Amino acid sequence: MTHSHNVPRRTVLAAAALTAAAPLAFAQQPPIRIGSTLALTGPLSATAQVHKLVGDIYVEDLNRRGGLLGRKVEWVLKDDQSKPDLARTLYEQLITSDKVDLLMGPYATGAILSAMGVAQRYEKVLVHHTLGVPSLAKYDKQFPAWSLGSDPANTTTNTVFEALAKGPKPPKTVAVVTSKFPSIHFMSMGARETIKKRGLQEVLFLEWEFGNRDFGPIASRIKDAKPDFVWVGAIGLDGNLLLDAMKKIDYAPPQHFYLYPAPGPLVTLPEAQGALSVTIFEEHPPFSSRPKAQEFIKTYRERAAKANFPDTSVEVQAAASFTAWQILETAVNATKGLDDKQIAEWLKKNKVETIQGNLRFDGPSNYGDDLMRIKQVQNGKWQVVYPPEFAAPGAKMIAR
């Protein structure tokens, strides 16, 4: 009799000892350090702040769940000031003097390419969340969380014009105005090709330097061209500045599209009603029904409100950032280690479950499928309107 009682008691004691030892081991082991930069200042800071908030949320939650490999995670973050050259220097520092274990990509294509060059020199894995020109990703240990496929200049732009063709007022004439920011310019050139292929007429083409603040002359030229649809190669606050300039001359475009706007500031502008953009995630089904999505939406909303963000909803930028952390965590846990070579090999052979869906990295430049959907500002909220199976419940594209 005593024997049968002793076994469970011993098991209970052993379990209790293990439970007590876990936090101790967690506290005693050196943390796993993940290094990255973000554009915390400069023209890209409005969007980079979103990525910082997501990283903070993710790392806190990761540590609550026991960290990585039973060790605490520490995020070593530096400000690249929206300057790709500075990002290069800082990633070099993160690897050589800060001796981080793993890397996470910065925000925006220019900085990502800088970070990628450094990662390649040291053979480190680089997961990144917003690279807009997949063909430039020539390093075999880089992995994208921005699911626009390997040929977005073709596939994503075609999705935009397909949505318009099936919308309430299919356009015949198009004005293309764009920033010269590399990824934006690349996509806008792709749009021009798609316009030609679809037999539409381009009535205006205009470019501006990245960081331009004077959109008056551009607004006037668009108004004079009288297009049915305006494609705006926008990044950061370009869309807001252009809409302000249009308002001053009493012009409202019939239909308008903004490529990668700073999400909050645009959606809250009354003139942005009907504005279109691209997305991989918005706060409604089917996106919000994916594992971890609801919990993330709730936490993000609370924290974004505290940080006084103009828009507290989780959309494309926040989702891409969250996805990048999910990719890194999954690969480290699957390989049970921090070996960059093993992590890279595992990612190329396996799918990762993320809030965007299951991602693969076995296509050209380690890209998978183009998961870009079309969203629209409707009554101060972003709603997916195309393809129909991803549209917000009851939402359809509107036009002036």
TrEMBL record:
Residues 31-380 form the Leucine-binding protein domain. Keywords: Amino-acid transport, Signal, Transport. SUPFAM superfamilies: Periplasmic binding protein-like I (SSF53822). Pfam families: Peripla_BP_6 (PF13458). One of its GO terms (biological process) is amino acid transport. It comes from the Bacteria. Residues 1-27 form the signal peptide. PANTHER family: LEUCINE-SPECIFIC-BINDING PROTEIN. Belongs to the leucine-binding protein family. This is ABC transporter substrate-binding protein. It comes from Ramlibacter henchirensis. The lineage of its organism: Bacteria, Pseudomonadati, Pseudomonadota, Betaproteobacteria, Burkholderiales.
